User: Which sequence fits this backbone?
């Protein structure tokens, strides 16, 4: 198994095991973070999340779609310095048409069935992050950078 294949397998396993991510947006140079329930595409080229259009994160994304998203498996114990994995995804987020993306919505709701009413609300925006790069940190200081090709 190649190193890239192993890294992609590790990313997929981490993403499948975690419900929440920290989304970073910005407005006028001021960073802003939010917790979001997320899912991922099998090819790791996209991450997905939902939010209402009345949120600060949606306003920030409307002004500047560039994002960073942190997904990790920390347990808040000393062992995290050896065992935890944290991945930062960078890319850009755009609202997608839920009617044209039913398979994506179905996958998202399979992971987050409790959000079905939220996602089907007219005020909800469903967003796709087109990932440019992943930065995976293990053992607190081992960093691997993965660039996603379109």
Assistant:
């Amino acid at each position: 198994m190649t190193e890239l294949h192993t890294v992609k397998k590790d990313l997929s396993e981490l993403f499948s095991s975690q419900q929440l991510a920290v989304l970073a947006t910005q407005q006028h140079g001021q960073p802003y973070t939010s917790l979001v329930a997320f899912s991922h595409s099998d090819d790791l080229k996209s991450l997905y999340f939902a939010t209402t259009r009345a949120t600060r994160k949606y306003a920030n994304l409307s002004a500047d779609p560039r994002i960073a998203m942190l997904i990790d498996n920390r347990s808040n114990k000393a062992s995290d310095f050896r065992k935890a994995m944290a991945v930062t995804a960078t890319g850009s987020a755009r609202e997608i048409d839920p009617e044209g993306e039913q398979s994506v919505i179905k996958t998202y709701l399979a992971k987050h069935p409790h959000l079905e009413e939220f996602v089907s609300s007219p005020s909800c925006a469903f967003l796709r992050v087109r990932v440019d790069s992943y930065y995976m940190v293990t053992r607190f200081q081992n960093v691997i950078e993965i660039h996603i090709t379109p």
Observations:
- The first strand starts at residue 20 and ends at 27.
- The domain at 3-147 is CATH 2.30.110.10 (Pnp Oxidase; Chain A).
- DSSP finds five helices and seven strands in the chain.
